[in-house]
Specification:
The longest helix has 15 residues. The chain contains four helices and no strands.
Length: 73
């Protein structure tokens, strides 16, 4: 994980599927769990979805809230 990955979770939108257009940090738990079972896609999006799944599974979503309010540089 890179430090900027957390910021990407609150800014990057899901590029495909049922939740296309939704910010990765806002994806529902059941959708992230489905990816964990079925396999994460390759590349950056898969890596970020896996990270979001770990954050969600460990009850740490609240840690992302301060990043949402951060002004962009």
């Amino acid at each position: 994980m890179q430090p900027q990955d957390l910021q990407r979770l609150v800014t990057l939108e899901m590029p495909f599927g049922k939740f296309k257009g939704r910010v990765l940090a806002d994806l529902p738990s059941h959708y992230l769990a489905w990816f964990a079972r079925a396999g994460f896609p390759p590349g950056e999006i898969g890596r970020l979805l896996a990270l979001m799944h770990e954050i969600d599974r460990n009850g740490l979503r609240a840690l992302l809230e301060p990043l949402r309010a951060r002004p962009r540089a």
